[in-house]
Amino acid sequence: MNPNDQAPSGSDVSSQETAKVAPETTESGPSYLTVTKTFASWALTLDHKRIGLMYLVGVLGMFFLGGVFALLVRTELFSPMPLITPLFAADPGAQADLYNQWFTTHGAIMVFLVIIPGVPAALGNFVLPLLLGAKDVAFPRLNLSSFYLWICGAAFFIYVLFSGGVDTGWTFYTPYSTDTSTAVIPAVVGVFILGFSSIFTGLNFIVTIHKMRPKGMTWFNMPLFLWGTYSTAVIQVLATPVLGITLLLLILERTLGIGIFDPQNGGDPVLYQHFFWFYSHPAVYIMIIPAMGVISEIIAVHSHKRIFGYRYIGYSSVAIAIFSFIVWGHHMFTSGQSTVMNIIFSGITFSVGIPSAIKVFNWIATMYKGSLSLNTTMLYGIAFIFLFTIGGLTGLFLGVLSIDTHLHDTYFVVAHFHYVMMGSALIAFIGGLHHWWPKMTGKMFNEFWGRIACALVFIGFNLTFIPQFVMGSLGMPRRYYTYQDKFEIYHQLSTVGAYVMAVGFFMTAFYLLQSLASGKKAPSNPWGGNSLEWHTPSPPPLENFHGVPSATDPYELDHFDYDPVTGNYSSRTTAGSA
Amino acid sequence: MMHFFNPLLSHWATQTGPSFWLPAPVSNFADTVDGDFYFVYWVSIFFLVLITALLVIFMMKFKAPEGQKATSQNDHNLILEVAWTGIPVILSFMMFWYGYKGYVAMATAPSNAMTVTAEASRWLWNFTYPTNGAVVPGASEDFNEIRMGIRDGSLTPEAAAEREAKVLEKAGLHVPVNTPVRIKVMASDVLHSLFIPAFRVKKDCVPGRIGELWFEATEPGVYDLLCTEYCGQGHSLMHSKVVVHESQESFEKWLEVAASYDETLPFEQLGEIVWKRKGCVSCHSLDGSNKVGPTWQGAFGSLRQYTENGVAGSTTVDEAYIEESIRYPMKKIADGYPGQMPVVKLTDKEILWVTEFIKSLGK
Hints:
The structure holds two protein chains of two kinds.
Chain A (H helix, E strand, L loop, with lengths): L14 H5 L19 H5 L4 H29 L15 H40 L8 H23 L13 H4 L4 H28 L12 H33 L12 H35 L6 H14 L15 H29 L8 H24 L1 H7 L3 H31 L1 E2 L2 H27 L14 H31 L1 E2 L38 E4 L4 E4 H5 L2
Antiparallel strand pairs in A: 1-2, 3-4
Chain B lengths: L5 H8 L16 H32 L16 H30 L6 E8 L2 E6 L4 E4 L2 H13 L4 H12 L4 E4 L3 E8 L4 E5 L4 E5 L5 E6 L4 E7 L12 E6 L2 H12 L7 H11 L25 E6 L2 E6 L2 H9 L5 E2 L13 H13 L3
Helix pairs in contact in B: 1-2, 2-3, 4-5, 7-9
């Protein structure tokens, strides 16, 4: 099939014109990193790249913090007896409370401060306008304000840490959250503020993608990352307000005693679960859809081959976004929701699996007969496909009503959503970070240590969570501070895996920081990508491009010559087609 | 649609001990749930192996140095797209269907099922047997002590088993084998969830609602009963045991013993047990709050306005008034209350204990 069939006829993008890519300039004017140097020039910047970078630093900092709590939890669970909590509290009850605060803090930080903003706000902010050949997002001031809202939300979480923690689980289920004496309100206010940060980013991206595509870029020759961020943005704007309202109601219930969710005051706890999951299930897709977009870029570029089934991948993102709104009830199969509701939600839940499967098969087909560069980035891409496959397939168990009755609220669920949230969304975030690292920083990282670290993370991850599947289906409930002796071996394997993973992540932090200091200078196009960000210097100038770029076919990846000296892919046809 | 793959999976589903993945199957649902589990399991294993094999083969076969051109730029194949859309659609519909069939069976208890009420509160279980009103505790504390004893070596396995048997004489959820049992689940404070892994059943205990699950245990023995909805500090210690009796007779014998009173206890303590067992608890509070009936706090000796056959009257709450109110609950209706108290048959002893209990709650 002619590749142009992917781009609808009527578009002015022909293969001749797509070859005439954006002006590639080697002149080295100041980059966005060096153009101004004052603190205020960063703190008050309206440049999407600087905002993206600041988000990145913040998100990675919070990832470290959330990771520390994960290690505390895993260390404690190495034994069913109190292990490290006695170091912090003398009373056995207080020790259990402490553990409950740890897993709550881990979950809340990772979900609200790391994974949700990770790909869209950190990577998306940096890359999205570049992919569009634009100078910035549509509303740069709104963009900066969403970053400061994120900082503000993060500050509330830090405050919670120092004011006795919160022990409700990241889900804030009522009536426990109405009842507990821990710092629920500051945590909930933090999440509320973060919600606005997320809405602003989503709004910005929707308008930017609608209004700022370059001449010649139709919806069907946008890079797939944009399909991903667009679908995500729609969910962010439509679903997040529901969470905001729910949390406000929770605050009203706690402060004024208005009976909304607490049955003692005439409320209904299951109503809270409906409200909460009406947002939080789509939120799962806020995390995974942009990650899938990253993977579409990584797999195609590092296979040096056209993405397979462009339209199927694009449409499947939209399909997942739509289905994501009508499956929330599958979190309540055992909560006493009516049988008919359960059956309906189970049926719809399976419909989400189909577009996910389509994506996986298309990525694999993209690799077929490609020219695979098995560098760190690509290894993360391939790791994603494997881990996401496990995450998706184990989701099938939980969608089946009869099996879910047994597996609900066990470690099987914990392992399943970690495969999706961490093994998929976070691995894609780390993969995307490597993919665009040369573009963001102008430096190449150390490939050798990159691959070692990726292998450690991959092995550690599987070692952490495969035993959790087994103990979960054997009947180990989640959120347990202590457990029956028969589960000890699984918990110990899991804890060892967590430490292996931690070593991998520390290694990653180390070689990435080292690259900033002494990394090789990055060429403008180190991987051979053809989307617009690879047609401007690394790091890009403040205005992104010298001149006005016109659309390229982002997946026309075979017209480059590789220069082993500079490590750059330069467009062969630019010179030839004149 | 039938479980046509059942022969293939039967050796998994019919095994008796715990398998690598699942606990021992000891209820009428275990075979169905395990069959569904292994259907999804083998489909998943097939796709995982397929995808992993393709990834590994492609990584080895198409690995290339930087700058080498891909040998194909083909980006489309309609037949493949239809295949990898269609096959998952069919398979996931089958999964949905089996899950739905299995679940519907679990959702509806047969009408002849024996009913037991399980009430969860932080962090203990109470099981009530309506046939004789026996309220049996979950005894989480005892089971935790036994567990710790085994761990630190202070209890030998034999001593632990003996102690457990002793505890179970008056604790735990007891059911006869091969008998449909309906468990009504409730919670008095926050969310809890009743989970019996060996039976493959689970239901959230939601305050303000009555949930329901049912099962038919197929194998006599002692099994774990756990809380699976996070409920705070003692969540992970909130467990109990299910005892499946080998016959209806042995179950009834146990129930009789469990329902008997330990008459060495002080009267007011026995009265509190009666208050719980006979259901006074659901209408009469001890903390001064008014429910369907008047609170018992400070009731004794207080002045009560009532209506008898439409005529207003008043009396001091004393032994005689309490006994009259229990034996003939609709005779004198306390003002401000709907007068809905049923006739609860109490023995003379039980009335005496309840009276002493009310007395102990102050004036």
